Amino acid sequence: MFKKLIAASAFAAFAATGASASTDVLQLSGTVDYQCTLQMSAQTSGSVTISSGTSQHQLGTMAIACNDPEGFTFSITSDNNFQLTDGGSNAIDYNLRVDDGSLIAQTFNANGSISVGSFQSNYAEGTNAVLSFNPTTVTAVPGGVALTDKITFEITGD
Prior knowledge:
Blueprint: H1 2-17, E1 36-42, E2 56-66, E3 72-78, E4 83-85, E5 91-99, E6 105-108, E7 112-116, E8 127-133, H2 135-138, E9 151-157
Antiparallel strand pairs: 1-2, 2-8, 3-7, 3-9, 4-5, 5-6, 5-8
């Protein structure tokens, strides 16, 4: 009987304290990184047929995003100063129109930039880039001449 009483007392003491428990807390914090991105999706692979009957060629769309609270600068530079050229005497001047329907709407015919001076949430998905030629200069270049230029688009946070 005495053994049963000791066993019962030990069990009651264990049951009264319950299983041991422990908790801990993980506090998360972080900072959103500055990110400015630009990606062009070309519809023409950058190659167009130049003729005096067609003055505009749709090059593709551009996805632009920047979360800099001070805004961003969108820049365009042309290796040949906005001329398609064969590297010799044959050249055609052209304009490049960039238009997103709200903040960026400009025609470039020289290297330049546009400043957007404040944070724009979910900015400018599907910005259009349209390449337009001056039809009066097209006939000044012999047929079959391959002309090139390289355009660089850049976005930087302010």
